[in-house]
Design a protein that fits this description.
This protein is of the alpha/beta class. The protein has two domains: 81 residues, Ribosomal Protein S8, Chain: A, domain 1 (2-Layer Sandwich), CATH 3.30.1370; 204 residues, Rossmann fold. The chain contains twelve helices and ten strands. The strands form three sheets. The protein has a six-stranded parallel β-sheet with strand order 7-6-8-9-5-10. The protein has a two-stranded antiparallel ribbon with strand order 1-2. A two-stranded antiparallel sheet has the order 3-4. A hairpin with a 5-residue loop joins strand 3 and strand 4. The longest helix has 21 residues. The radius of gyration is 22 Å and the shape is globular.
Length: 308
């Protein structure tokens, strides 16, 4: 009860204001007063919060905020769908699982379809969750290798002027992928699999001319592909392979006049059977709460600019 109420009953106040209900503490129970629709939402919210506390022994402010938004949206949801869906266990012992219902839809699509596009802002877990699914598929022997790629736009896909050998040239552009792999697999396991050629991390340009059989292939930062690069990548798909394409169409770094392959493919393949597009939003951001506010502020600003 103490965890549910929060420090100085701040959680209780948040629920009362958010759902326009009166909540009174009576012995070891809570009495709710209000209109039937709001009461149903408040009851569902409290049941979900209690379940979180029973499982995690604590209530994170982000969980409360997210569940409040879901309750206000009026959807019928059960937090057990998220808490019981474990993708894999990271090297640190951390449980990797979807944290929002948008992420849950994304993870379900990755399990079901051979080609999935995960589109949304930074912090929504697009790449990290795809890697977790890929690692689990590899451990289950559903695929024999994992291939991770992204366009090296900052270097114009022309890496010759950079110092060092090939690996040293591309490493700076692939560092976010390495970081996620280290977190999920651990450095030792990653290096062992990398040396055996079972995990490959490479710029998109090095995918040309290949056929990728029995592989889980992830294309990251796909908004920075050209139309030609996107077509080239998607036609690499071989037998027994799965593909996940992630990107954020609000952060395109291509030069002026160049079309984003991700934006184009969203129109071309939207009705193709076996391909799933999952759009994540600011509600699915699981980073610092300020990231969500920053993205909302930018969206509001750009909306005014485009309409004005």
């Amino acid at each position: 009860m103490k965890e549910l109420l929060g420090n100085l009953d701040e959680n209780l106040s948040f629920i009362k204001e958010g759902l326009n209900v009166e909540v009174r503490l009576k012995d070891d129970s809570l009495d709710l007063f209000g209109y039937s629709e709001e009461l149903n939402l408040a009851e569902g919210l409290l049941k979900n919060l209690v379940y979180i506390i029973e499982r995690q022994r604590r209530l994170d402010p982000q969980d409360l905020k997210y569940l409040m938004e879901m309750a206000k949206a009026g959807g019928d949801f059960d937090i057990r769908e998220l808490l019981n869906d474990v993708i894999c266990i990271a090297a640190s012992g951390k449980t990797i699982k979807p944290k929002t219902f948008g992420q849950k839809r994304y993870v379900d699509a990755l399990r079901k379809h051979d080609i999935v596009f995960g589109i949304g802002p930074a912090g929504t877990g697009k790449t990290y969750l795809a890697m977790a699914i890929a690692v689990q598929a590899f451990k289950n022997r559903e695929v024999s290798r994992i291939i991770l790629t992204r366009p090296a736009v900052e270097a114009g896909e022309n890496l010759g002027f950079l110092p060092g050998d090939l690996q040293e040239k591309v490493d700076p552009y692939l560092r976010p992928i390495y970081d996620a792999l280290f977190d999920i697999l651990g450095a030792d396991s990653y290096l062992r699999l990398f040396e055996k050629g079972l995990i490959e991390v490479a710029p998109l340009a090095y995918m040309r001319g290949r056929t990728l059989d029995s592989a889980y292939v992830i294309l990251d930062e796909a908004q920075n592909t050209t139309n030609e690069q996107m077509k080239m990548f998607l036609t690499r798909l071989g037998f027994g392979s799965k593909v996940c394409v992630t990107g954020d169409i609000t952060q395109i770094d291509l030069g002026k006049g160049r079309q984003s392959g991700l934006k184009t493919v969203m129109k071309i393949l939207k009705d193709v059977k076996g391909i799933e597009f999952i759009n994540l939003t600011s509600a699915d951001i699981v980073r610092h709460p300020l990231v969500q506010r920053i993205i909302n502020a930018y969206e509001a600003y750009e909306s005014v600019e485009n309409n004005g």
